[in-house]
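Each field is set out as follows.
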Amino acid sequence: MSAQSDFANRIPENNVSVEEGFDYSQRGQWLRAAVLGANDGLVSVASLMMGVGAVKHDVKAMILTGFAGLVAGACSMAIGEYVSVSSQLDIEVSQVKREKRMGVSSEETENEQLPNPMQAAAASALAFMFGAIVPLLAASFIVDHKVRLGVVVAAVTVALVVFGWIGAFLGGTPVVKSCLRVLVGGWLAMVITFGLTKLIGSSGL
């Protein structure tokens, strides 16, 4: 009984070392910023380009719209992430100071790496630009309007699946569920933007 008990106790430990060797929560901050930034860049810029493509056939108009969306979105992501992480940093620093005044041991908190607002802002901006480049490149070298729209949708679809898979792999979440969630959300954004812009454009407003 004792030998079996010792063997049984050792099995979970080995499994934990293999399956749970990585603490996914520790990389939640940068993973969230990177995945959200890339997805936002991909979906928002692609949707803008699809909206313009619904009423204009000029490739230059689509590219300029996409580029403007890339710059504006990257700045917005960087500023938003900087403000958010700065607020989190202020809260954590205040908590450490309160614990010190109260004489509570805060060794674990002090050893933990505090969030870096500038790093988070830069990661969000770069990730957004990385995602936004996909529809821009897909539309840049195609003259035919309908083919251009189809290529943009195809490129964005592939990128959405890849981003969903990367996020699931790094975060330790179900791959199929993650990919479907990202893919359906991206499709809806493009369809709604294209449809509403087409409707408004055809009404003469």
About this structure: Confidence is low (pLDDT under 50) at residues 1-26.
